[in-house]
Amino acid sequence: MGEPLTFADPSIDRILVDEAQIRQRLEDVGRDVTADYARQGVHLVGILKGSLVVMADLMRVLTIPTTVDFLAVSGYGPDAGRSGAVRVMKDLDQDIEGRPVLVVEDVIDTGLTLNYILRTLRTRHPASLDVFTLLDKPTHRLVDLGIRYVGFTIPDCFVVGYGLDYQEQFRNLPYIATLKSVEPDG
Ligand code: IMP
Ligand code: MG
């Protein structure tokens, strides 16, 4: 193994959650998911693109039959208001009817995006529909979603890395960091 990577970008402010903390927390969550879905297995549904990295790590700590699919949605525009209406850009490949679905998200802020996704998925009659989010930012929550598994609860700040982006940058950082100054872009 070589030297640990450091990211040179001057706009990175500080590391909020480091790699070791993420690994440890995912092992714990993975144990819970493994226990809770031991009987039926689990069908993971990741929301692209933010869930890409956490999905890859979460699925590898599960020791039960696991299948994976992805859904891509567009962010809601300023005119969507509180409906949180988002557009499905890439639908699931597989039918979820009768299956134990666990949605995998990167971050939940207002909850509007996920609320819309859950409403959509519910119409397809999964056997169960639960949520794992890597990050929970409860400060601005507008809809109570009853999130079953949370990686980390964080304060109201814009974060990047480990799948999360600012204008499509920084998804590749192995940790979660704040930026020096950003205009949040949703
Ligand atoms: P919500 O609909 O307000 O819950 O927003 C969720 C979406 O906004 C996420 O799926 C992200 O795409 C984006 N988002 C919210 N907070 C952050 C952040 O701190 N960093 C990067 N993206 C974020
Ligand atoms: Mg985004």
Features:
186 residues, alpha/beta, Rossmann fold, 3 helices, globular, binds inosinic acid, binds magnesium ion
Descriptive report:
The chain is α/β, with parallel strands linked by helices. It has helices spanning 19-36, 52-59, 112-122, and strands at residues 12-17, 42-48, 66-73, 88-90, 100-108, 128-136, 149-153, 159-160, 176-179. The protein has a single domain (12-179), classed as Rossmann fold (3-Layer(aba) Sandwich), CATH 3.40.50.2020. It is built from 3 helices and 9 strands; from the N terminus they run βαβαβββαββββ. The longest helix is centred in the first third of the chain and has 18 residues, at 19-36. The chain is globular. Inosinic acid (IMP) is lined by residues 50, 106-114, 158-160, 164, 186.
Could you tell me the radius of gyration in angstroms? 16 Å
**Overall mean pLDDT score?**
92
User: What ligands can be seen in this structure?
Assistant: inosinic acid, magnesium ion
- The helix/strand series, from N terminus to C terminus, equals EHEHEEEHEEEE
The major β-sheet equals: 6 strands, mixed
- What is the strand tally? 9
The CATH architecture term is 3-Layer(aba) Sandwich
What order do the strands of the largest sheet run in, or round the barrel if closed? 4-3-2-5-6-7
Low-confidence stretches: none
What proportion strand? 25-35%
Shape: globular
Tally of helical runs: 3
Briefly note the structural class of the backbone. alpha/beta
Helix fraction, binned, reads 10-25%
Which CATH class? Alpha Beta
**CATH T-level fold name:** Rossmann fold
Q: End-to-end span in angstroms?
A: 36 Å
